[in-house]
Amino acid sequence: MQNYHSSAPLSILIVDDTAVNRLVIGSILKELGCQVTEAVNGKAAVELILANNAYDMVLMDINMPIMNGLEAIHCIRTQEAVQVHTKVIALTAHERESTNLANAGFDDILTKPIILERVAVLLTKHFPHFQHSSPNTDYPNTPLPSSEQPVNLESDNPMILLVEDNQVNCIVATNMLNTLGYEADITNNGCEAVTACAEKQYTLILMDIRMPMMDGTEATQLIRQYSNYVNTPIVAVTANTSPADIMLYKQSGMDDVLAKPLTLERLKMVLDKYLQMTPEQVNTAKKAYLAGFAVLDHLFLKKVTLNNPKLLVMLLERFIIETTKQLIAMEHAAKNLDQHKLLHLSHSLKGGARSIGANRLGEIAAQMEMDMEATKLQTISQYLQDLQQEFLNLQTLMQQTPWNEE
């Protein structure tokens, strides 16, 4: 275990609606010698801060009921004393949100899942008197859970042509497509795309606009001259999405626009709009994708619980209690077709599951969250069934594992 200490205890407020997340973060902070207070939403946090402006730092989740993190930071920053004294840190799974969160008034971000090393680096950065020693290797430096893992896909899935000259963008887009159960061929410019379409039939084309040799609009015009590509969906993938730009893309023969930088959610919406996989294809791709996620990542779980068996068991017990409540609440929300409640519950379950290394359960919840954002309420029943089955698998594995002997 790494040895950390603070010469003067830091007072830190944790704001997160998920009890498991609060337990994980609180345990890490206490291990680092900090004094910890908890709040379950932004409103409660604002009230605590205004009543007792003695916190050195606030760790604030973004997505919460009653008052979310963005609303809370606005309230906090209107108080001059708080603005000067207290560091407010956004808890987020997406590092790419850092600029927007900084503009909203946050001092920094702490990316999920939360581990001791990340917290220590954050505290060292903002408090010069906080120090930590060099690490040793009591446990492996395991990779963090990833929501973008390659999977084995069925060859009869709809075929996509990705036209992109930037190799990094190609990797990002391909990983996202694989995540969603699709294969893709890649060409690096418009000329190659036109040639590829002459040799093979694609069901969807994702077309970059600015490329060497031939840009996306010219390539689209040529592809549309093929009789078998008159009705094939061609989607512009670009950061230029002004009304004038979109009109230009439409005039060249493109059907839609997908804004850069790509997100899994936006890509999924486009694929759902233009591609219709058979139920068998969807089920096969889904099973293959989820098989790439661990039911429970033991090494990661030991890491977030600081190699402490008692803390590990306590965390798992809390997780089972909270998840049971969440699944019951989901059933009630599903009966009432309460899309907002289902969105919040799936987001909360996703975060809680990933925070302990229950990656497969977390990924099912993440997929449900995306569908709830897109108001695809017809998928609720299947998600509830999948979540309940995976939760049962997880509990069985927990019971079969001798945690004190590992």
Automatic annotation (TrEMBL):
Keyword Iron: no
Residues of the Response regulatory domain: 11-127, 159-275
Annotated positions of the Phosphohistidine modification: H347
GO molecular function terms attached to this record: ATP binding; protein kinase activity
KW Electron transport (keyword) present: no
Domain (HPt) ranges: 308-401
Main location: membrane
Name of the featured protein: Response regulator
Organism in which the protein naturally occurs: Beggiatoa leptomitoformis
